Structures are given as C-alpha cells and as structure tokens.
C-alpha cells in the first residue's frame, strides 16, 4: 500500500475548511478535531476517511447542516437532549460537557441524546471526563449490520462503549474503547478502499459464509465478539436507543445504505470520584493497578502487557512528531471531496512519501 504522511494540523485545517462550506464554524472545528484525533491514535476506521460518507448524507439532506440541540428533560443529575438529526460529534461534546458539570454538582450524572447520528470514536468523549479527573462512560447504538450471536440476520449495531479512568495529574488514564463486534466495521471500509484482504472472523457474507474479501464483507454483516459481545451490544442498544427514545435494532436505517435519518441514541456518564472517596487515594490505587498489570510477565508470543488505551497513546505521540500516514486511495477520496467544496488538498499538505 502506498502511504503519504500529513501533519495533524494540516489535516485538521483541511477537514474543517471543507466542513465550514456547509456547517457552522464551531461545529466544523469539533468534527474535524474528532476525525483527526482518531487518525492520530491509529483508529483509521473512524478518522478522516469518514468525511466523504458524512458529507454525502448531508448533501442528500439526511443529516442536518446545523446541529440544533434541544433539552427534552433536565433533572438533577440526568439530562435528555434531542440532537434533532444533527451531527453526533457536536451533540456528543455538548452532552459530555453537561455530564461533567452535573457530576461536579451532584456527584454522578448521565446525559442521553436522542435522534442523533454517528458520533465517531466513543473515547473522544470519555477522555474529556478523564481530563477533568472524573470517570467517563460513553456508548452509542449504530447501524444494524451485526448479527446477534448464533443468528443469520443482523439486528444489532457493532455498538461501541468506552470507559476512561483517570490516574491522577500527569499520569496517563486508562481508556477502554471497543466495538462489540470483533472489530469496528470501519476497518472493513478501510480495507475495501485500500483493496486489502481482511482476516477471518471479522465478517460473514450476506449468505452467512465466512469471508476475507472486504467487498463481500461490506455487503454482508460483521460478527459479534462472541456471545458476550452480542449481549453487550443488546444492552447498549437499550441504554442508548430505547432509554433515550431513539431508534434501535432493525428499525434503524443503515448509515451507508438507507436514505433516511438514523435517529440513533447515545448515553454519556460522568462519575465524580470525590462522591465515593478521596480522589488522591483512588488515583494512587489506579496507578498500582496499572503497574501490576503492565509488569506482568508476558506470555509466549507477546513482548509486553499493555493497558487499554496505551497503544493508541503511543501512536498519538509518534504521529504528532512524524505526521499521519494516509493511503493514496484515501487521499484521493479526500482530494475529490475537497474539490466538490472548492477546497484544494494541495494547499494544505506538505506530503512526504513515507513508504
Ligand atoms: N460510532 C460508532 O458507531 C462506532 C461503532 C463501532 C466502533 N466505533 C469505534 O471504533 C473504534 C475501534 O474499535 P475496535 O473495537 O475496532 O477497537 P480495537 O479492537 O482496536 O481496540 C479495542 C480496545 O482494546 C484495547 N487494546 C487493543 N490491543 C490491546 C493490547 N494488546 N493490550 C491491551 N489493550 C489493547 C485498545 O486500547 C482499545 O481500548 C473505537 O474507537 C470505537 O469507539 C464506533
């Protein structure tokens, strides 16, 4: 695969300038930040390669250009927002900021969002909470392209969940961020764009057969992370979709196939550690937990043991220095998207041939 590298700041400016042609400036900045953040951390499946798909839905009028969020319910420690078919990233940042404020006041808080769209990576929002020194939780339901364990027909999204745990000032937090499928479907999308085979176990064809062909896999369905991934996806569908009064399961239109608003739901939570005990003692014990985990002797075939979030953090540090590698196929797609909006990718990039 041919790859070129672009600095995070150039990529951010390009994405926000493209988005600004249709969306308010502040909202464009938020969306660009979430996309580049994913690429910085090596989560290509949810990085800038998502732009064209998002914009196509917006061009067709399936997603609103401006995200007008309304408050449906505001109780002591819980809020229900309506994203009114706006952008999931804009709703996510607003909702999590509210959850943090409520947790400062009431100890813990949950904020639900109804009638939203794809919000990108779940940990973008939980990391906001960990930076505040609280525990963050986020989840969303998604397009029904995953089969429940043992089923032939899809009725679940690869519904992701993230939990971020702070470990004190200047200490890296623990950041679990996972789809409930074996891998995020976005990885199949990237493999399809780059024409690369996928490993077995990621997806099945429409007829229920295992496949390593990314095109067949895209037409087919992703597999849950066993019965436990399937069970967790059902719970997330209920907490994000049913609880917020959003669409759920089979009735949700699919992001890449159906020309209707998805009206999906998210749930965001924040736990103020002080409401349970001494935060400093908590952070100390979290650091001990990290230490006992990463100091475990690696088993055969492993170099070392990582905490959730460590590999992404390591990639972020590297890519902040060296830039973000992007395949020429995805770069061409970005270039075409830019051209549609009168934004020339060349004006933003000092591209270096990396491989
Ligand atoms: N918005 C949506 O609808 C949607 C749907 C699905 C997935 N997603 C996002 O896709 C992204 C990718 O999801 P995924 O399930 O493919 O992620 P993944 O399989 O790459 O990683 C999942 C988790 O495992 C941890 N991990 C990976 N290797 C590890 C190791 N060797 N040791 C310790 N921990 C390790 C990671 O740090 C991460 O927390 C996530 O950010 C998720 O939120 C979003």
TrEMBL record:
SUPFAM superfamilies per the UniProt record, alphabetical:
L-sulfolactate dehydrogenase-like
Query: Which Pfam families does UniProt cross-reference here?
Result: Ldh_2 (PF02615)
UniProt keyword Oxidoreductase, yes or no: yes
> Is Nuclease among the key words of this record?
no
Q: Which UniProt keywords apply?
A: Oxidoreductase
Family as reported in the entry's similarity comment: Belongs to the LDH2/MDH2 oxidoreductase family.
Protein name according to UniProt: Ldh family oxidoreductase
